Amino acid sequence: MKKWTSIGLVAAVIAMGLGLAACGQTASTTKPSQELKLPATAQLDTIDLAKATGYGQTGNVFESFYRLGKNGKVAPGLADSAKVSKDKKTWTFHIRDNAKWSNGDKITAQDFVYSWRRTLTPATKASYTTMFSGIKNGDKIIAGKASPDTIGIRAKDQQTVVIQLDKPIAYFKILMAYPLFAPQNEKVVNKYGKKYATKSQYMVYSGPFKITNWSGTGNTWSFVKNNHYWDKKVVKLQKINYQVVTNPQTGLSLYQNKKLDFAQLSTEQVKNYKNNSAFKEYPYSIVIHLKYNFKDANQEKRRIMNNRNIRQAIALSINRSQLTKKVLGDGSVTPTGFVASGLASDPKTGEDFAKQQTVKNATTYNPKLAKQKWAAGLKQLGIKKVNLNILAGNDDVAASTVTQYLKSTLEKNLSGFNLKIENVPASVAQSRSTSGDFDLYLSHWGADFNDPISFLQIPVSSNALNYGKWSNKRYDALIDKAQGADAGNNEARWHDMVQASKLINKEQSFTPLYQANYAYLQRSTIKGVIHNTAGTQWSYKYAYIK
């Protein structure tokens, strides 16, 4: 999901990238119009699946071998069959006879081969290339040590795709439901050249819907039913209209006037509408956290960020129970660490990973210990005051509330700490975080699939999404072992990941704040929407207005 962006894009990823929860309109006739009117908190930044940072919304227009169904389970996609070798390192997919692009072209095996190579080509500037780790030559290509043409995928014939892995990947099947791995049409890319994906008409689509009226900068766009989609008979919605709404009160007014079928609620609105019959809460495998800039351009601030006592003091000064229950009040919960709860369970015991990653005094409120850690950190640094800026995207309804809370509680508990808030547009926050232009960053990560590695691969030293540039050799070794030597041993791999997550907790290389839950008003006439906590959270393939 997106993903490693400011909290200002959390709602954007949910509203724009994840497609916001479905809702409908009540028609005046006995047969309601199959048209949704949904809000988005930010513009849709790209429709090029190779360059996207989240696919929650565009997961409805692009489809891979599989798609995500109910309860995070893999459902049929463009492939009608799949086989895996005994050593689990060779996967063979057969593409459906009736798989077509939105322009009527046949979707072929070569479209998948071209797609993966294009995404991995440096000139494409894709941000999600790390997802190809473990696929044959994937790690070498990501490191710039091999050509994208050597990625382990080939077209055996027009409808058969063969994928080779360097090692077994426990979550490979669900990974193949992620739109990043969907096909791309080389003929269309070449036809439009520089225009490709700059407007909705310069793109072809493989999913249940296609995009219209998107120009790259507008505040409105639509999804319309793709009549060339292989399973078009089950798609009942004719159109989904999106409108950018950055103010919760504006969104609520539009909802009440039936100009929108859905409204995301702010913290104050949640308190007022919690008992309303239209009130809905949706959980996500998204953990909002503080990111520290370990390579801060300011040398003094860099020293502060690299002091573990200072980071631990900050973590211990935050009352997460108060933050989630009283400040936010939207159903968000206290995390136990960097990995979200409810994401994955121990293959042997069935226990939640989130419980096993727990470390004492990592996400608990302990102001007394915080003061001790703070004093020790200041002494080590030889300073008496700390002045830091916190960067956050202002597009999310919670960003201002959370940053104000952090300023209040940190300055109250930590003597000599001055925290300056920088709430900026989400696009600005994303740009600045990518270039390392921040001290503290109110950030988040949402799982792309139901496995802890979706979180744990981000802090690896070599990962481009590790914007704070934290680096730890032991951590890197644990993740390398989980993805390499122990990849085929579920229990050993699990143990590696637990130890890695505990290390993050102890170091406070990232400070978890809360696991997001989002509240909405949603019309009761909407049926058949699929919501998941990870990956492409919202699917409208089976949605309809009753």
UniProtKB/TrEMBL annotation:
Signal peptide: 1-21
Superkingdom of this protein's organism: Bacteria
Localization (cell): Cell membrane
Entry membrane topology: Lipid-anchor
Keyword match Lipoprotein: no
rRNA processing recorded as keyword: no
Annotated Pfam families: SBP_bac_5
Solute-binding protein family domain ranges (all copies): 73-463
Protein name per UniProt: Peptide ABC transporter substrate-binding protein
Organism: Levilactobacillus fuyuanensis
